[in-house]
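Exercise 7. Predict the structure of Intradiol ring-cleavage dioxygenases domain-containing protein from Hortaea werneckii.
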Amino acid sequence: TRGDSVYSLLPCHVVDGISISLTNRQYYLQYSYGLPLSLLHVSYFVGPVTANHFTMSSTNPPKVDVPVLKDLNIDNITDNVKLINGQCPDPRLKYVLERLTQHLHDFARETRLSHEEWMTGLQFLTKVGQTCTDVRQEFILLSDIFGLSLLVDSIDHPKPPPSTEGTVLGPFHSHEAEPQTNGSTISHDPDGEPCLVLCTLKNTAGEPVEGVKIDIWETDSHGFYDVQYPGREGPDQRAVMTSDAQGVFWFKAIVPVPYPIPHDGPVGQLLKKLKRHWYRPAHVHFMFEKEGYDHLITALYLRGDPYETSDAVFGVKDSLLIDLGTVTPEQAKQYGMKEGSRLISYDFVLVSKEESDKLREKNAMEAMQKLGRNMKMYNGLPVPDVD
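Solution. The predicted structure, encoded as tokens:
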């Protein structure tokens, strides 16, 4: 029996000192001496139980000193959890978990979260994880639609003027892109409208930056990334390039088009419930890496796109909006393009890592002061100053 309910027990397996009783509704795990370990809903525990499922033997439990937990209730559970987690020796992890616990518990109290809603949330997150594959990151997509991705990038990679602003990575970046040289064609979509892309890279002093690794990716003319095609032969609409001595890189692509983010999974179902669309405005992704410079993930968006002001993942910024140009006769001859073809041109500006780190720390301390918290920096991140 469990509470007022009666469960019919099925054969019990014993693994490494842990007994698993299979009931008609749940797997009830307990130590062989009768202390409850956990309850796992049957739909989440699939396959035969072996010793590999467990990393701790009940016959040799770890010896740790823990604070005495008081009679737990709505009013003191938060302080008790923070107390026991407060033994963490890493000050940053300790601080992050302390704030996470506080906000999670406050959320439950403020919304009067029901058990059914709590379980629905857990099932949703489980489905998000199950949807992830080597080429699809549903958790990044979930972070994107809540605006968390853009928020974290803005906090962790502040870009002072006149440096180029960052934006979201998105769920379809891959490491399959092949190295290309200036002038390469990165898209082989016969239905796409040809587009010449001319770019420069400079630092905040206006000097060209040579040797920057540039990761580029976009969809095809139908709004799909290469990794979304099961039978693809290799990477397309993506490349890795390097800026030359003048900080220049250029390539031939296709005009980007608006497209839907994946909406056949749990994130798409959530957007549907929220009465939100799942479209992104037309854009091309760029990622820049060079030692001594702050990592930059950004994109260029076409001005006037129907989804410019309602991007499903909140990625558009005014400074990243561009107008499509037209290839001139001189450019057509110089770059081997047809006159009148579409043109994207942009001057990217990278900020040094030192500049970005100083700005991040300055912003962090100012934010903490506004919250009335006495903080110090630890590995570039704020932690409580208890010295």
